[in-house]
Amino acid sequence: MVNSLSTAAEVRSRARSGELSAPTPGLAPGYVQANLVVQANLVVLPKSLAFDFLLFCQRNPKPCPVLDVTDVGNPEPRLVAPGSDLRTDLPRYRVFQQGELIEETTDIRKIWRDDLVA
To answer: Does the residue 93 lie in any domain?
Structure first.
């Protein structure tokens, strides 16, 4: 079981292994939690839309804080979590297409593409 004294890397590892699929508040004190339930959301979109979304976030920093931006096709947030994989290291993902929720899953590797930015 994950306790409140886990490191961020331990929480990501447990999410990747499937041991953790619930919200993570308080599991890694001192770290920003980038998951779909707590303080920040992960947004993954094609490179063609990434700049416009980043500009929107910069103009709206309170509701849309940007913690890191990945290189195109690379799921590793090198600035805030080196060695992690955004496709597997969050407890749960809500996948939207055209504004519609199409899936909830614990792994988005099957839908990851080489043109995506997170």
So the answer is: yes
Domain that holds residue 90: 8-117
- Whether 65 contacts 56, CB under 8 Å: no
87 vs 31 pLDDT, higher one: 87
CB 20 within 8 A of CB 2: yes
> In angstroms, what is the C-alpha Rg of the chain?
14
pLDDT tens column, 14-72: 878 878 776 666 677 666 655 433 345 889 999 999 999 999 999 998 888 898 999 99
The count of structural domains within the chain is 1
